[in-house]
Specification:
Organism: Acrocephalus arundinaceus
Structural class: alpha+beta
Subunit structure: Interacts with PSMC3. Part of a transient complex (modulator) containing PSMD9, PSMC6 and PSMC3 formed during the assembly of the 26S proteasome.
Number of helices: 4
GO cellular component, one term: cytoplasm
Shape: rod-shaped
Radius of gyration: 41 Å
Strand content: 5-15%
Helix content: 40-55%
Family: Belongs to the proteasome subunit p27 family.
Protein name: 26S proteasome non-ATPase regulatory subunit 9
Length: 201
């Protein structure tokens, strides 16, 4: 049987086909051995002549010779086929390994590109009063705000949106996401009354 595929990569069905062929050959070998068994149990090496050197009359010499010849041929085919099965399996595993490595590389590349596509900011912090709730939470000047509680670039209309969220969240921590130095940073901010103006500062 020819090498499966020639130029194309080995597939699982190629291997299954080789294994089916191997099973067929094994079944044929078994059938010939049974035939020899039926001829007074002559195996592959018992003499086919009697003590005087004449062909044995108790067996079908021609049939035994043919069976022995076929067994030898089939065993050679079987050996060659087993080598093909082994090679095909090696190729298949090598391809699986290659595919796995490629998938991992693609996943990594995707993760990297996701890191680069940062969400859109809708406001920028231009001042933080020292000692204010904003300052205590770690908010910094030049932080670009991408999420402020429930407000994000998709639903932000004006600063009044933020003022509303702040008033409703007095004394309760708000989740704020900013872009700082090209990276996402999460800040926990609790609007509350303090010595200065407003609830944030």
């Amino acid at each position: 049987m020819a090498e499966p595929g020639g130029g194309r990569p080995v597939t699982v069905s190629d291997v299954q086909q080789l294994v089916r062929r191997k099973d067929e050959i094994e079944a044929q070998i078994k059938a010939y051995y049974e035939l020899l068994e039926g001829q007074k149990g002559v195996g592959m090496h018992e003499p086919l002549v009697d003590a005087e050197g004449f062909p044995r009359a108790d067996i079908d010499v021609y049939q035994v010779r043919t069976a022995r010849h076929n067994i030898i041929c089939l065993q050679n085919d079987h050996k060659a086929l087993m080598k093909q099965v082994e090679e095909a399996l090696h190729k298949l595993h090598a391809r699986e390994k290659e595919k796995h490595a490629k998938d991992e590389a693609e996943a990594l590349a995707e993760a990297m590109s996701q890191n680069q596509s940062l969400p859109q900011a809708f406001a920028k912090v231009n001042a933080v009063t020292p000692g204010s709730p904003a300052s205590v939470s770690g908010l910094q000047v030049d932080d670009e705000i991408v999420e402020f509680g429930s407000v994000n670039a998709n639903n932000f209309q004006n600063l009044q949106n933020i003022a509303t969220v702040v008033q409703h969240s007095e004394g309760r921590p708000l989740s704020v996401t900013v872009i700082r130095g090209g990276r996402r940073v999460h800040v926990g901010l609790t609007p509350k009354r303090w010595a200065g103006k407003g609830l944030l500062g």
